[in-house]
Fold:
Amino acid sequence: MSIPTLTPFPGGLLLPAHKENATQSPIINAAMPQRLIFPLQYPAQQHHTVPAVPQVSVGDTVLKGQCIAQGDTPNTSCIPVHASTSGTVMAIEDHPVPHPDDTHTRCIIVEPDGQDKWITRKKADVTTLDNDVIFDRIAQAGIIGQGGAGFPCIDKLHSQDKAIHTLIINGAECEPYICCDDSLMRERADTIIEGTRILQQLLKPEHCYLAIEDNKPDAIAAVQKAAKDTAIDIIVVPTRYPIGGELQLIQTLTGQEVPSGNNPTDIGILCHNVGTVAAVYHAVALDEPSLSRIITLTGDSLDKQGNLEVLIGTPIDSLLDEMGVNRDTLSQVIMGGPLMGFAVHDLNSPVLKTTNCLIAATREALPPPKAEMPCIRCGRCEPVCPASLLPQQLYWYARDNDAKALTEYNLFDCIECGACAYVCPSHIPLVDYYRKSKHHLRQAADEKARADKAKQRFDAREKRLVEQAAARDARKQGGDKQSAIAAAIARAKAKDAK
Amino acid sequence: MTANILIAIFTFALLALLLGSALCFAAKRLKGDRNALVEQINAILPQTQCGQCDYAGCRPYAAAIAQGEAINKCPPGGEATIQALANLLEQEAVPLNTEHGTHEAPQVVIIREDDCIGCTLCIQACPVDAIVGTAKQMHTVITDACTGCKLCLPPCPVDCIDLTQRVAA
Structure:
């Protein structure tokens, strides 16, 4: 055991947890929905993925675990899509998906047949598997990070051209209301530990930490029991939002800050959510792709609250009905937590692999945002920023659309945790400003890249046209007729000789 | 007294001569920087190469702006480009001259391949070599390279080229 000295990250907040309502009962399996919706592409996150190509057509029957869409060329950043139960493909069409902006994406829609019939799976003794086989199983399983940002698991693993010296499993679920990881750790600690051991076998890190906040004593006890006799150190970290943020957790455990613009793997650290490593265990040991996840259903508009094991693709509406939603008091459904989550526009949207929590909120619990008042320059946002940014400066520059200043003040280091907006006495939705600015800056960079390419192609064409014109002129001037005739004769002779 | 006046006149004449030659020298040196200015202007222009400004592409228009041409003749760039040019050249930003067209969301063209007769006219018209194909063979557009300049539309004898909204990458 090597317990690191904990280094507190800057800023942060102590928030009311609101987790007690959903943690009273064990995980239950959600009922089979009427239909399942599988988006071919995850709504754009910080990383680019390309849409998967459907491998089935309307009317086909599919089995549970069958790959129904994948990249058409290898090595594309494309997450394979699997049917999460057996049934019939009803349609391949645009369908609403959960996203802060009301977004539609091409989806495969499957009607379950109720049999839940699996494809053939090849269980394996993990210790005998080659690294390549393990990588392949993880890639084929379509696992993406379950913590929130949804980075494809395999991309994170493959970005390790530098050796990983520290593997961190993130069980610090810091945002209020969310407790799916808590329940997973309490009830399925073995799966998490097995999954972690697979990653250890793969990466051979010097240190392996599983970090849990100190407000989850049951989870700590369960994981400690399961991790006995393993090389995994369970680290209890103080409860402070947003300690579950990847960068904040890394800083807490190792004292290192990930340099701006880099990924943790660049400094030899890999961080995965507990749900993700559980999915790795299912993929590698049981040969089961990522088909379901645990989702917290909470909020005062629900009769029953709790953690459900939900098939990926289940419509949000059917989950709400199952938990006895009171539509009269329901004001909005938040996907994710109250700070980083967003209101779902269309309740027909499916749950995604990144959906950790659905809050069916009443008007009283989560009132609509208060009217935005002018910034009074109180500076309260600055000490709570966990990334040590200057939220107020960023706010002014975001309003000015000052791309240069926003970049200089490291807008892209903002993790959008919402701590600044939470403490703002003027109720300024600061993160909304930052998100929009980030979007504008990315767009401007894309346009610039396009323009540069067009300029290059235009210049190349101009050059070629000038050269062609010069060559034509040279020919028109007559050139050397005799030598041209001689060359033609030589060519004809060479041809005859063949 | 007269001597004092003469000294003053002489001093000022000398000063004028010196400053004048310094200005001449500076002007000559600045001429060398004109290319750099054209590059700076060209970097702001959207590189659509559409010719809506009545010049044969973005660089020629950039060269003309460096010579004092109006900065509001670029519809694809729109207000943002005009503002950036105004900042660079320390001019007042003026509204887009709509005689040259209106600002639209980015577009690309697509060839309806079934209708293409392989005449190569669009290939010759494309300023950024974004159309591939050869005589009597079907042509197609490299969408990633297409700037949406619309120069391929008029030459097409069978009108098999469609404009569509560019989908964000």
Q: What stands out?
A: The radius of gyration of chain A is 27 Å.
